[in-house]
Design brief:
single chain; alpha/beta; nine-stranded mixed beta sheet
Length: 338
């Protein structure tokens, strides 16, 4: 009976002819640190290079500087944007200068010795006279108005005209301006003593409004050759030569000064509402050529005045009064003190 050793040997002999399974396994490289490898050393970790400390410090400082600069630019842009206000539309303004006035020349002072020729001939000057510290001839700006009387002509179209009196800048005779959104641009030209106002349409969408300030020292005659929806003439602080209203209007409003000379008002263009305020109670003379629906002259009321009718109203003797020639039709006319 065979023992265990003989049985084991017999089994080995039987399997000696079998193929080895390892011959059919895929080749695998020997992995360090694993069984079957050529070396028992552990798998080396990848080598990491440390940046030099000074390079890291420079990079950090540069990053901080860039961050500060970017933050400052952002904050500055936010501040300027928040403080920025919308730009207002330009407000056209024209100052009509005074025409050139004669220059005033002061004569040089005359020395007493120059008036006695004998003394000047007998005594020669010891030294040349000193140079004057200031020029002998000096020019003075004109202190008065450019001229005593002038005419203002409305020749341009607009919806509203506002005329006042005052002292325009730079001793000018007039200042013409409009609101920033006015749909017309004004232009003023001076020829002799006649100031003509014209207008031109622009791209603005506001009302066609023009404001005019005339020199209060000049006696102005107002002439309209173009119609206007509403016109106001606030002239109680100035001087008035008269009115020639050829252009029609829906509304005329006037404030007139007390003066010795009579103020003539001729209206031929037609007006719906005509209000006149006077600096005191003025005597009034009214001549109707076409018709007036209703009139009120210092409290005296009349209706349906026909062509050829006349009316009068008493007033202060200290005023030259008003003479109203209503050539065109008038809806309502009112004259009363301020």
């Amino acid at each position: 009976m065979d023992g265990p050793g003989s049985q084991q040997q017999h089994a080995l002999d039987e399997t000696a002819g079998w193929p080895r399974i390892s011959d059919y396994w895929p080749d695998t490289p020997d992995t360090p640190g694993t069984p079957g490898g050529d070396s028992d050393e552990p798998y080396p970790r990848p080598e990491t290079r440390r940046k030099p400390r000074h390079l890291a410090l420079i990079a950090g400082v540069a990053g901080v500087v860039v961050l500060i600069v970017v933050t400052g630019v952002v904050l500055l842009r936010m501040a300027t944007t928040s403080d920025r206000t919308p730009a207002a539309a330009p407000n056209p303004e024209i100052v009509v200068p005074s025409p050139s006035a004669p220059v005033s020349i002061e004569p040089a002072p005359v020395s007493p010795s120059a008036t006695t020729p004998s003394a000047a001939a007998s005594q020669a000057p010891l030294s040349p006279p000193p140079a004057p510290s200031s020029p002998a001839a000096t020019s003075k700006p004109p202190s008065g108005p450019a001229f005593p009387a002038a005419t203002f002509v409305l020749a341009g179209g607009m919806r509203e005209l506002n005329v006042t009196v005052g002292r325009p800048p730079t001793n000018g005779i007039a200042r013409v301006s409009t609101p920033g959104d006015s749909s017309v641009t004004p232009d003023a030209t001076l020829k002799g003593t006649t100031l003509t106002l014209t207008t031109k349409e622009n791209d603005q969408e506001g009302e066609a409004v023009v404001d005019v300030m005339l020199d209060e020292r000049i006696a102005w005659t107002i002439k309209t050759v173009h119609g206007v929806r509403r016109a106001t003439f606030t002239m109680a602080e100035g001087k008035v030569g008269g009115f020639d209203l050829q252009g029609g209007a829906n509304s005329f409003e006037m404030t007139l000064p007390r003066q010795d000379a009579e103020i003539p008002l001729r209206m031929s263009g037609g007006v719906n509402s005509w209000k006149i305020r006077t600096e005191g109670s003025f005597p009034v003379k009214l001549i109707v050529a076409k018709g007036i629906g209703e009139s009120n002259l210092n409290g005296r009321r009349d209706q349906d005045l026909a062509p050829g009718d006349t009316r009068q109203s008493d007033g202060d003797d200290s005023s030259g009064g008003l003479k109203i020639d209503a050539v065109g039709g008038v809806g309502t006319l009112e004259v009363k003190p301020l």
